[in-house]
Amino acid sequence: MIANPKIFDGRPLRLAGYLARNGIDRAIGLYVTGLDGENFIISNSIDLHFEESSAEKLIGKYVILEGTYHAPAGPLSEYVNGYVDHVSGLKALAFGDASK
What we know:
Structural class: mainly beta
Low-confidence stretches: none
Number of domains: 1
């Protein structure tokens, strides 16, 4: 999705990744790995548009979710790798969760 965003534009997807703060506005993003999220590597993330209070307990964990992906509008797009909205089914994954 990050490498070929136009292919997935407008499609509903099921995604897994590391949930962490993303961007100057402290929005929540989905990162490829925990290391990316902990080091704020935004080029390896996508923004999530949803009610953030529903995810507070999951920040810093690997998660799975469903949503609709929107590719970036161009090279100067506000969302470097696009964003996902209509997020549902957000839940933690036991795999990769260092707290377990």
